[in-house]
Amino acid sequence: TPLLSPSRQILQEGAESSLRQLLIEAFVSAGRVDNITMVMGLHPQYLSSFWKTQYLLLRMDGPLPYHKRHYIAIMAAARHQCSYLVGLHTAEFLQVGGNPAWLQGLHCAPQKLRNLNEINKLLAHRPWLITKEHIEALLKTGENSWSLAELVQALVLLTHYHSLASFVFGCGINPEEDQDGGHACRPPSPHSDSSPASDDGMGGSGGKDAMREVEVLMERMKLLQESQLEEEGVTQEEMATRFELEKTESLLVAPSDLADHSLQSNVLCFVEDPEFGYKDFTRRGEQAPPTFRAQ
């Protein structure tokens, strides 16, 4: 009703003002507004909490030096082969004075960081397999031992970036303009009818291609339904078989841009035992693995 429109306008203007302030703060702090921030800007309150958390983890006082924090972020993102986050934190790592030699791969990093590999691998794919022995091995006295405070911060960074990698993949976030294959990303506007994944936004041609694939699939499904009406005696089972065949042919063909081997090598150099991946926690007929519980 007309009576509600002024309050809606006030709320909308308040959200815009809040988002604008957050983007300014992000720019002043990091010297840039990355695409993650732009996408999360659709929900300013969530962005505010996320950005404060990131700021505390990466830039505030803590037991780990800044360059090691970014290297741990790289290790975590690489475990999920998230090239966007690996590229982002590679640049950050160098900006805060990290040793460029470490970026040649995990084998070039100090042994202390390499010792995180096993727990990084488990946290990323099968966290229920972690035992107290994994923690004890990292804390034991020695040249490359971790203090408890350092390890806590490292584990929080690992889990944070495992989760963030899922967000990046789920939203289809592309690299920044100044990274390989990067795109610009417009700030989300409540007044705009276009989505954040518009042509000049983060979606780019990839979004168009995906939509076209869906359209082609729908056209094929329509033709199949029409043929079913014409052909009497076609069973539901046969229709299901035809549908699966069409879906497989149209949607399950790997896009060519995923076969970028140079990009993969830039990520996989930070990963040991790349074949290790997710496996169901419990399977029918199998005994569940023991769990490490801390109350």
From TrEMBL:
Residues 191-200 have a biased composition (Low complexity). Residues 178-208 are annotated as: Disordered. Belongs to the sestrin family. Keywords: Cytoplasm, Oxidoreductase. One of its GO terms (biological process) is negative regulation of TORC1 signaling. It is found in: Cytoplasm. This is SESN2 protein. Its main location: cytoplasm. GO terms for molecular function: L-leucine binding; oxidoreductase activity, acting on peroxide as acceptor. It holds the Pfam family PA26. It catalyses: a hydroperoxide + L-cysteinyl-[protein] = S-hydroxy-L-cysteinyl-[protein] + an alcohol. One of its GO terms (cellular component) is cytoplasm. InterPro entries: AhpD-like, Sestrin. Gene3D superfamilies: AhpD-like. It comes from Chunga burmeisteri.
